Each structure stands twice: as structure tokens, then as C-alpha cells.
Amino acid sequence: MYSSNQITTVHLEITTKCNASCPMCLRTVLGGKINPHLPLTELKLADIETIFPATFVQQLKRIYLCGNYGDPIVATDTLEVLRYFRRLNPQLRLELFTNGSARNEQWWHDVAQVVTLCHFGIDGLEDTNHIYRRGTKWTILMRNIQAYIAAGGAAHWDYLVFRHNEHQVEPARELSQKLGFRSFQLKKTGRFFSNQKAVVKDQQEVHSAEGELEYFLEMPLDPKYLNPSLAREEALVHEYGSLRAYLEKTRVTCKVAAEKSVYVSGEGLVFPCCWTANQLYPWYREPESGDIWALVKQLPNGLRSLDARQSSLCEIVDGPFFQKLIPAGWERPTFASGKIFACAKTCGQEFDPFRAQFT
Question: Cα-Cα-Cα-Cα dihedral of 230, 232, 233, 235, to 10°?
């Protein structure tokens, strides 16, 4: 893949905890009860100082705190961690990805002095944002945004488009300008996809904490808001017989290998990317099963071999998981023989729901 001294970007998930319950996030079971397999934890400043020594931080160009499961604003030491990175590398691009609905105005004022850019995930207006961002509070979100921007913070608005909010795209864009956001980005979500069945789905169940069906998330009606990659399913099925057959045959071109990026989880685990790490704790699968676990179990100390609080991040990146096991999983001819499903889905040639979000 790449050696540790080539890394320029770190995706840090400082916690697996969150104040929201988004239905397409694996932290919960369809937006309801907490994923029973997921460790709820966070990295403290002392952990960060161990994982990211000064020499490593100084070689980086970008660190972004973005949730795979959690939201960085709920972690205890997020502000102190941001200040630590900024002190070690004043030129570093520091970014925060968040739902924005936690902390007080002073905290947001202080964050504005440290980060380069804050990405707010806001999927609608006051009457719709909570349909996907379950558990967030609009009044708190608006208060925090205003405090952050008033303190000089650069803000970006990410807007996931669903059927229930597609009519509010332009009003939301206008609100972003009124509030002082630097930019506004529509995201055509690629999560209307069943990893279990390897098929595109047009709706997503949303459950209560008791596991009862409450409503559905649905794809937008307007074709311009649909994820172009998901829309290719019919053509790929016609050519290959099924989407799964395409994924088995596609050539993998790793995104993070190209950009020299690495992911560190809320447990301090080092993975090439959040997509491979995301396969550690899916609620719909038996614990410690699947292709990523099959690779992890080949390591001398299993998952502990990837813990950057016990072994250095550089040793992990330069070790067998990154240099042999993951790349070998790109070349396998079938999933049964060890081809990595997450890699084929995310970094294949003709089906790329992640990148297609932004087209």
C-alpha cells in the first residue's frame, strides 16, 4: 500500500458515542436501539499523545475528525485534542464533521479558533432535519452554528437528500448563505444499499428503541438527487447477472492508498479506511465474523495488533495487515476465497456510491 512515512492524511474517529441515532449509521439498529456489538468508547488526550507523537503530526497535511459510528463533539477531550494537533503543526488542515447539536456557545467559540473548517451535517430545515438526524435539536444546532461563525469559524453545510426533504434544498441553501456558511454541498446518499443482499433498495426502515417499525426513509423522487452509482444497478445486473457478481469481478483501486490516508478508530485501532473498519461491528452479523475479521484473526494478537496505544501507528502501517493482508484481499477472485467486500463496493471500477454522492 504505502509506508508510514508517506502518510499525509489521518481520518480520526475520536469516539463511537453520539447524541443522535441516524437510521443509516451502524451505531444503532435502524435508528433504534444501540448496536449490541459496538464498544462505546472514546480516546482521551493521553491516548492521542501516545498514538500521534510530534514527529508524525508534523509530517501530516490534514487531520479530520469524522464519525464512523460517533460524533466528535460528544467526546470529552475533543477541543484539547484539536489544540494539541494545532500546537504541533500550525500549518495543519484540521477539520471537524458533526451534527452540531451538542456543547455550549463557549465551546463552539473556542473550536472556531482552532479548526480550519467545520462540516455540519444538516439534512433539512427545522421540521425535517430530525427525521434522519434523530435526537438532534434544531434550536441547539442553530445556536451553536451562530456562535461558531460569529467567532470567525469557517462552516460548510452537508445536506443528505431524501424524499422527505428534497423540496427544501433551495430554502436550505438560502439559509446557509444567510447564516454565513462558506459552502453548501448536496449529498446523494449511497446508503440505500443492502450489504447483506448486495442489492440497491429504495427505502430504509426506521425503528424505535424497542425495535418497532416507525417509518421509512425513501429515495428522492427527483432524478437529479439520486445517487448515480446506485442508479447503475440495472445495467450492471444485465451485464454481470447480479450486483454481487459484478463486485466479485471488479478491479479494486484503493482510494486511501492513492491519497496516503489512514483511519484511527475510537478504540485506537488503525485501519486503512473507515469502510474496512466499519465491518468490525455490524449489528446484522454474528460477532467476529466476516472477511475483515478473517484477516484480523491472522495477526499475532488479533485486534490488539492494530491498537496504536500498544504498538506504534507506524509499526502497524508498515506491518502485515496493511502491507500484505489487505492488498491480497483485493486480488482474490471471489468473496468466498477472501476478496474484501467493502473494498470492492467502495473502490471498484463501475460502482462507487461514495464518490457518486458528490456528483
Answer: 180
The CA distance from 184 to 177, in Å, is: 8
Helices assigned H by DSSP within the chain: 45-51, 54-59, 78-88, 105-112, 129-132, 138-150, 169-179, 233-240, 243-249, 255-259, 274-277, 291-296, 313-317, 320, 326-331, 341-347, 353-356
> Mind listing the pLDDT tens digit of every residue in the chain (359 residues)?
899 999 999 999 999 999 999 999 999 999 999 999 999 999 999 999 999 999 999 999 999 999 999 999 999 999 999 999 999 999 999 999 999 999 999 999 999 999 999 999 999 999 999 999 999 999 999 999 999 999 999 999 999 999 999 999 999 999 999 999 999 999 999 999 998 889 999 999 999 999 999 999 999 999 999 999 999 999 999 999 999 999 999 999 999 999 999 999 999 999 999 999 999 999 999 999 999 999 999 999 999 999 999 999 999 999 999 999 999 999 999 999 999 999 999 999 999 999 999 98
Neighbouring C-alpha atoms within 13 Å toward the C-beta of 138: 10
Burial of 241 (0-12, 13-18, 19+ CB in 10 A): exposed
Q: What length is written for the chain?
A: 359
What the block records as the C-alpha cell of 272 is 486503512
Q: Which of 6, 5, 9, 182 is nearest to 85 (CA)?
A: 9
Domain boundaries, the chain: 4-98+188-221+256-291
